[in-house]
Specification:
By secondary structure, the chain is α/β, with parallel strands linked by helices. It is built from 14 helices and 10 strands. The strands form 2 sheets. Strands 6-5-4-7-8-10-9 form a 7-stranded mixed beta sheet, with helices on both faces. A 3-stranded antiparallel beta sheet has the order 1-3-2. Strand 7, helix 12 and strand 8 form a beta-alpha-beta unit. Helix 1 packs across helix 4 and helix 3 packs across helix 4. The protein binds S-adenosylmethionine. S-adenosylmethionine binds next to helix 8 and strand 5.
Length: about 350
């Protein structure tokens, strides 16, 4: 009999590891959520290298349960352990203590969307929509999300200056649509003292954006414009930079194209659109992070999916943008940068 499969399945069965990885994925996530909720990382930062007894005294938690959790976090490679002593490793210091330089502590609990939607995923696929989409109460979902993502997106926007050189522009006017706490507008205003910005979001999120902008001392160069980004008034040819930061994937294909067209109209000739999102490749299989982000959108929104590089570049070209490039200011954060041509450059 000829051997079959790759590797030959009649001779060597395939590994079950991908199935175990999926099963363990749930536990891995909730171990990290619990460790953050119980302040493990901040407590170890405060106490220094600690035994389980020292941590159980500090946190008033039963020793056996705490040891099980600590050992699991070590298994996740997010803590160090030498004999009975636990300590922060470099990843925990950077991403998991609440004042870490690139902290994701606030993001972990909210990034997958409402957790209960995952338990109903098969129903969502059957019905073609989630039973409780985030659009039913957008503010309740987005307020903690934009708090949790600010540090990462602000880092991305700040680093993007190496490619965009917005710090060297003369008096740039920025339009940040669906700005959240405005990581992009804040980064530009910080690095260019002559920049001004219009920051748009839904009213509840704008209240928090105001506080964030004030904490950077930038309020006097900002107009806050509440409203639906598909309808809110936007001046034609009024801006040098328009930012669509992680908004398109919640809007469906039509919504994303509409935002791209609105951005084009808002830009002066020579102005640039910065569009950040998670982009799968054309076959939707080489970038699992972007593909799984698409499933996250499908699980919790009425029309959200991730769209490929090719789809976005086609939409950008169709809107009239000409010089289109992709940058990755920090790991996992890609942005299209697209230029609105001046009339003489149009073909
Ligand atoms: C994923 S967050 C992105 C925040 C920010 N732009 C960034 O890059 O980090 C999406 C933001 O879009 C806002 N948003 C969603 N639908 C909107 C709409 N129809 N009009 C205006 N803002 C909207 C949400 O409130 C949220 O602040």
């Amino acid at each position: 009999m000829a051997h079959v499969g790759r590797p030959w399945t009649d001779y060597k069965p395939p590994a079950s590891a991908p199935v175990w990885a999926a099963i363990e994925g749930l536990g891995r996530y909730y171990i990290l959520v619990a460790a953050l909720e119980l302040d493990l990382f901040d407590s170890i930062q405060k106490l220094g290298p600690s035994t389980v007894e020292q941590l159980s005294d500090e946190l008033s938690l039963p020793t056996a349960h705490l040891r099980s959790l600590l050992d699991s976090v070590v298994a996740l490679e997010l803590l160090e352990q030498v004999r009975d002593v636990y300590d922060l490793n470099d990843a925990a210091k950077r991403y998991l203590v609440s004042d870490g330089p690139a902290t994701m502590a606030g993001l972990v609990p909210v990034a997958p969307g409402p957790h209960e939607n995952w338990t109903r995923l098969a129903d969502t696929v059957r019905r073609g929509r989630p039973a409780t989409p985030i659009e039913d109460d957008a503010a309740a979902f987005y307020l903690p999300l934009v708090e949790g993502t600010f540090t990462t997106m602000h880092r991305c926007a700040t680093r993007a200056d190496l490619k965009l050189r917005y710090s060297a522009m003369s008096r740039p006017r920025v339009l940040d649509l669906g700005a959240g706490l405005a990581p992009w507008a804040v980064a530009v205003l910080e690095q260019n003292e002559h920049a001004t910005a219009v920051i748009n979001d839904i009213p509840e999120v704008l209240v928090k954006a105001r506080e964030k902008v004030a904490s950077f001392g930038l309020t006097d160069r900002v107009e806050f414009r509440a409203g639906d980004f598909h309808k809110v008034h936007v001046e034609d040819e009024g801006y040098d930079l328009v930012v669509l930061g992680h908004v398109c994937r919640a809007e469906g294909a039509q919504g994303a194209e509409n935002l791209i067209r609105r951005s084009y109209a808002a830009l002066v000739p020579g102005g640039r659109l910065v569009l950040s999102d998670y982009f799968p490749d054309s076959e939707r299989k080489l970038n699992p992070h972007a593909v799984l982000m698409g499933a996250t959108m499908m699980a919790s929104t009425t029309r959200g999916f991730t769209f490929t590089h090719e789809e976005f570049s086609n939409w950008l070209s169709a809107a009239g943008f000409q010089t289109i490039r992709l940058i990755e200011p920090i790991g996992f954060q890609q942005c299209f940068v697209a230029v609105k041509p001046s009339p003489k450059e149009m073909n």
